[in-house]
Batch of 4 targets.
Target 1
Amino acid sequence: MEEGDITDEEFMKGLQHAVAAGTLYPVLCTAAELNIGTKLLLDFITEYCPKPTDRGKVTGKHPKSGKEISLECISDGPNVMQIFKTVSEQHVGELSFFKCASGAIKQGMELLNNNRDTVERVGQIFAMNGNSRKEVAHIVAGDIGSVVKLKNSHTGDTLSDRSFPVMLKTIDFPSPVIRQAVAPKSKGDEEKISTGLQSLHEEDPSFIVNVDSELQQIIVAGQGELHLDIITNRLKQKLGVDVIIEEPRIPYRETIKGTAKAQGKYKK
């Protein structure tokens, strides 16, 4: 800037490069509920955020040997996809959101789940637009889609051709910062609650549920009070089960507090 002005085109290219390299993090103010700033955000993503092809090669590892494998984002490459989100929908079942890292994912295709060493058959594929979905024949490299009713695949799993086994870097979810206990308002709902919470954990791995047999409590942990409130509300909406939030009990134990000396005699 000290040597003169820059044109709009130069500014645009420089900003695109900085965002792609991760040296600059733009901050935009939006309010989705009031629809303020959402158009600006979408326009910014379109103009300045890197396209999948701009990111260069993506690296993964061979599931058994651990050897590093490079993947190029091209539609005629090996077929590789990674699930990044799971949503359970009524009358549909589990809807798995995925990104196609290479090749093209088509209906009826059989892919290897490299994280679980199982084979999955790809069913209906959808292109998502908010809450609406449109059935499509295939999703190509760089695009995002969703697929229904995968048997053994979950968030973070990489699926690929059997002839090209590869595991992409798994998603790092934040550790919980708060834990609470939940108890059913009505007797006999314990199993429903446990099943529902496990299903919600599949959708949101940053939420963790654990049945503590020692404390006789169901312990839930998440990113804050609001996070756990949303989880309990979703439990009520999905299964019609009301729960009470409690403080987790503490498993007190006896311990040795001091030292002592004594003499004993053993008489056979």
Target 2
Amino acid sequence: MDVSQQLVEELRSAHKVVALTGSGISAESGIPTFREAQTGLWARYDPQQLATPEAFLRDPKLVWEWYEWRRKLVGEAEPNPGHRALADLEEHVPGFTLVTQNVDGLHGLAGSRDAIELHGNILRTICSAERIEVEPSQTEVPPICPGCGAPLRPDVVWFGEMLPAGAMEMASGAVRDCDVFLSIGTSSLVYPAATLPYEANAAGAIVVEINPEETPLTPQAGYTLRGRAGEILPTLVEAAFG
């Protein structure tokens, strides 16, 4: 696809770039978006009713098994050209910050370093009481923390929970200081992440939306590129940096 030469020049000359990614880029690797219908055994469950502290207190076994199913999907997925293009972009831009709403760890597998994971990482396990990372070693479902005996849980942000300490502050600080902001594969509906492109806009950054569909951000974006991240990002990065 063709990309605006003006946008290519803006990206090439940028000293600081922030990229915010949402479920769309992971969907291109075969990972269902959170709100997509469940399949098989899980078809009768509403994911929003499972991803809460209350659900875990009520039925920790059910919630753990659902996340084990989701971990299996993630474990079978591979980074796509969109993930790899962002890792490549990081090598070319002096001040690059990657912020993701995804919990699948695919950015790290693609080579991105120090991504700000706003919603945690499904591949990590923590103690539900002490909130420290623990490597599960028992066959109990869910496993028990060897330190305090509390059930273990995935290290993800559930509905009604705060984001990881400092994550939003780091993201917001990078946004207020960036030259170009890329909004990639996100509906711009999930808060507080949805505030970031507007912060960038208010600070004078060039906001670029890369998404197949129109979103609430579209009217505010300086550039709108319609399509899949795995097709657009490699083309954009190649055009800017060769």
Target 3
Amino acid sequence: MRPRQRGAAAVAASVLLVHALLLGLVPQAPGPGWRAQPPRVVQVRRIVADASVPAPRAAAATPPATAARGPQAQPLQTAPTAPVPAVAPMPPAQPATESEATPDPGGLTLPQYATLLPPPLSLVFELRRGLAGGSATLNWRPQQDSYALSLQGQAFGVAVLAWSSQGGFDGAGIAPLRYTESRRGREVRAANFQRDKGIVTFSGPTTQHPLIAGGQDRLSWMVQLASVVAANPALAQEDAQVSMWVVGTRGDAEVWTFTVLGRVTLQLPIGTVADAVHLIREPRRPYDTQVQVWLDPARHYLPAQAFLLVRASGEGTEFRLQELQGP
């Protein structure tokens, strides 16, 4: 064969070899990157996926109408229904879970207690807030259909707290309408109990809460708790609990559950207080308030001593009864 003919033959052979490689007719030796060849991975996956499908010969042997009703079609019809019970909605009566930071969605049920309200009076407390010491006066002024309640505190001649609650009464006891916190004589925050609409709104946050029966604010709870224990002596026993829904001014609303730790004798500026009922409310969130309160049976179960502590910040306010005044 001439050189020119040999060259043409070699070129033709090379072209045929390349086409054979592209068509997969010639096996390739496994090199370093053989595991990463995408065509072979795709072919394997298709073979596995097709394994569950009936062979073409079996499908041809069975008429289409029979195949739709045959036993092989049952798993495909029943499999999607298996997870349905796991995603069934919760019953509407379930309350919100503890981890939710959103407003209570309603449906919350708390005990309803009989109440025995104290008469009009004023309690003067020795006040300690951090390193500052002073005095605070709790004024309770009930009328036939309404009440006014305030707590004013001073330290070194400067107002350190000014809380006010106004409202009326219902079957659950005290029924607040408006709670405010003031500073230097000016109202800065408020919670509004819109009883005609069944909601609680706030002067700052746009948060709204459904109004819960027996709900209190962060001042009225003091008199409400005294009224509940005064009317229910069994709730003054160790391990007894009193729960109420308490609203602040920052959009917060929590269930406060007070647990009776026992009875103690206190030595206070007003003198000896015997058989004081010691209760504690543990916070459910880091920046909520831990409350300890000692109720005086001789003074309508009103607080003789109280300690409010924000655990996360360590800020605490202590009240110790110093004087009891009439209206």
Target 4
Amino acid sequence: ETGLIYINANEMAWIMKMLPRKPAVLTPENHKQAGERLFMQNCMSCHGAHFEGSGNNPSLKNIKATSNHTEVIDLLNSGRRLMPAFKQLSEEERNAIATFVLQEKSEYNKPFVPTTKKIDSVDIMPYKIAGYTKFLSSDGSPAISPPWGTLNAIDLNTGEFVWKVPLGQDPKLTARGIPATGTENYGGPVVTAGGILFIAATKDAMLRAFNKRNGKLLWEYKLPAAAFATPSIYELNNKQYLVIACGGGKLGSRSGDSYVAFALPSKDK
């Protein structure tokens, strides 16, 4: 109807460090050695070279206190959230990764013999990535000028921005009297026929409504946990609803397990 597209965006700088890659191993090694090699190949880009985590991927430094060998294997088999399953790895390879991550010394610290002499194309690359690291200032904020997250309306006919507003606010900056900076955000917007744009996506756990024509903030609501998801709008019995999943868990926010639904009051009440 309007020829506009609505997009939330991140303005973030990342550091990607390259490390020399070791040649493929075709000789016997123990499980911890094999696990380290396989971790570097399959896991380091997300969880960091020293288990420190990177981007939205969690640190594994405390995994010994929270998980056992079987639980790590189950996670490698099934994946979770942003983490894919690693079913392409053999059972022995998954055991080796678990042994390395948990720094185990007993049952699985036995000889590991590679099951194939095929050298994967990834093994002949001279470098590997050490992980995605955010470029941050000493207080943990992005080390570039804000806004760090924006909501934008773009005219599809001209490519021009119709409006742009910051999306999200860091509570610790708000407490210092700093105007809205916008924050890193994940999850998209939805737009109603009546001209309202709804979006969550930010770690401050707010659901916001904007005027789609000019970007003016009309309403906001504190959710039980951050909603890194796109809202869903539907109609039932001539009544319009909006529902959003509040899973949290990213950007240092606490995890949640709620779906929250909204609707306008019925006309007969």
